[in-house]
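Handout, section B. The chain below has 163 residues.
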Amino acid sequence: MVALDRCEPLPGAPRNRQVFLVGLGRPSAEAAAGIAAAWLPAADARPALVVAEERAHAALVEHLRPRVLRMPAVPADPLAVAASLRAALDEGAALIAGGVAGAEGGCQPALLVNVPLGSLVLREPGVQGPFLCVARTRSLAAAEDRLEALGALERHVLAGSPQ
């Protein structure tokens, strides 16, 4: 795993699904700022995952919400995004912010919580949608096996004291 400030894909390389791991040692506002700066929903309009330890979850979501609402709409098929969003909600996710069609086309990024790690929106590579999905876990170590099942991941770690 690499620190967030050193994690950049190679130019022209295909992007793996982004996963942000947030532990208790990082202030929530700082973690939210790092996630918002590193998440690139416009690159491919694919969902990204944030896995937060239970005690960090609520504060992190509180800090992510206004950042997601300030993000511009990204190019995406509104019908495909709506279908993916509906699937996530059917699996137990809750929409906290965004997720609407943009005024000039595309879709506003969406913040989803309570997304199961085995959810279709995270598991299927063809799912489209600028979704930032936040899942909670007892510990980052407890989520590791379930993350491996998601396939190729670009990991960003925000745990421990800032570097």
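Note. Confidence is low (pLDDT under 50) at residues 1-14. Compare this with the example in section A.
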